[in-house]
Amino acid sequence: MPVYACSDSEEARMTISINEYRTKTMNYKECYNEIVNLLNKSNVKEAGLDARLLLEFVCGTDRSTLYAHPEREVSSAEEEKLWPLVKRRCQREPLQYITGEQEFMGLSFKTGKDTLIPRQDTECLVEEAMKELHDGMEILDVCCGTGCILLSLLHYSNDCVGMGVDLSEESVSLARENAARLGIEAEFKVSDMFDNVTGKYDLIVSNPPYIPNEVIPTLEPEVAVYEPFRALAGGEDGLDFYRILARESKNFLKRGGWFLAEIGYDQKEAVTAIFEKEGYSFVEVTKDLAGLDRVVKACCIKEKG
After folding, report:
1. What is the rounded CA–CA span in Å between residue 21 and residue 178?
2. Has residue 305 been placed in a domain?
3. In this predicted model, what pLDDT tens digit does every residue of 152-171 receive, in sequence order?
4. Quick one: how many helices (H) and strands (E) in the chain?
């Protein structure tokens, strides 16, 4: 995995700066300020937030420490662990890959470089799915990644059962680990979309790859360089996976079952047309908290098979 492009001189300056900090004895607030400075120089958005989270991760502190105990000394052992992580963030590696975790729907999920990082935008998909979710339902999550969508739905419902599938063995393994950590019973298995799926479901959810291939290199380095291309790339127009989902999901939905998926902010008309062409009813799109089109929902009135 290549790092965010830095010139040799920039890399040298970064190494000198970080080595310089390692020789100093600093308190918590001083460390925080130095990290913010380095992250700002590397054009990291929300440098203050990331600096605080890195300190909390290394020192085992919480958000109140910065304000209540700014004089707390950062030990040499903590600094030895801290500065290499700061350097990784300066190279634009996502914080969630550095710490190995991300909060989603109030739950903590382990992350890995083979899976897409759970995002707050995707919580909109879970919230919309919960409106159609009732006790005892069967749920299928296609392109499950970390398992955050399915596991959140199971956590906030009663007596539901679920299965998640993903093409990546690493993603399936991580999803199983997250289920075990959260104490949630769910099945995860490797499958190229619906190839290894059997049975019928009340609810099918998905956060498929939906970014047009040529757009990916233009995105922030955290995404374009570090997140797995296969979890982002939706084909030439970004719609490849929606065509598969619309064609195949109705074969696995019970009568009256619902399909929900995350979509790109500019894909409402195209995705809606795809599902309407495949015979789904009540096709609608919901906006996220930022007012952007985010979730498509469609109902399967006629059960197939």
Report:
1. 36
2. no
3. 999 999 999 999 999 999 99
4. 12, 9
Q: What is the DSSP letter of 229?
A: G
Task: Write down the residue that tokens 């809606």 correspond to.
Answer: 272
- Distance CA(96)–CA(82), nearest Å, equals 15
CA dist 118 and 129 (Å) reads 16
Q: What is the pLDDT of residues 189-210, one digit of tens each?
A: 999 999 999 999 999 999 999 9
Alpha helices (H) in 146-301, listed in sequence order? 148-155, 169-182, 221-224, 240-249, 268-277
Last residue in a domain, options 93, 117, 146: 93
Q: Is residue 260 classed as helix, strand or coil in its secondary structure?
A: strand
Whole-model pTM above 0.85? Answer: yes
> Do residues 39 and 51 lie in contact, with contact meaning Cβ atoms separated by under 8 Å?
yes
Q: What is the dihedral of CA 218, 223, 224, 226, to 10 degrees?
A: 160
Q: How many domains does the chain have?
A: 2
**38 and 63: one domain?**
yes
272 touches 262 (CB < 8 A)? no
**Which of 36, 63, 93 is the last residue in one of the domains?**
93
